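The protein record filed here.
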Amino acid sequence: MSTEDLTMTEASIPEVPTVPEVPSIVAAEPQAAPARPATPDAGGFVWGTGRRKTSVARVRVKAGTGVIKVNDREVDVYFTEPQHQAACRAPIEATNAKGLDVFVKVHGGGITGQAGAVLLGVARALKGYDPSFEAVLRERNYLTRDPREVERKKYGQAGARRRFQFSKR
């Protein structure tokens, strides 16, 4: 056999059928959505939802005089503790958006959970109102939901971690 017989020319290579491209199962890195203003509803409000423990706050923001109402009451009347009042105002003061009216409907959980839900809801509504606020709100950690929840009670125990007293006899 000669070396010419062993080499193959392009014409002698058999045609291999092509397989159509199949999308990869491995997910690509998630891309951040471009920042765009949320469109106001028919009343001119931009909405934001906040959650903390079992509390849910639905927040509406629009240009106005700087009123903050929680469940149709002033924020200082609804939240009596200074730290809860400060939590509700924190995103507004951080962004210096004092000329906005904020209306909140909050339910579930306790007072601390509700204050945390209002904080997150106001921050999300402000971000939707003006996307330039996002950097300040994210820097102060106002756009991050607190994931802590109450651990469930297990059967055969007095609580989530608490056991019944052990008796050897």
Observations:
- Residues 72 and 131 are 27 Å apart (CA to CA).
- The first strand starts at residue 46 and ends at 52.
- The beta strands are 46-52, 55-63, 68-70, 73-74, 100-107.
- The chain has a mean pLDDT of 87.
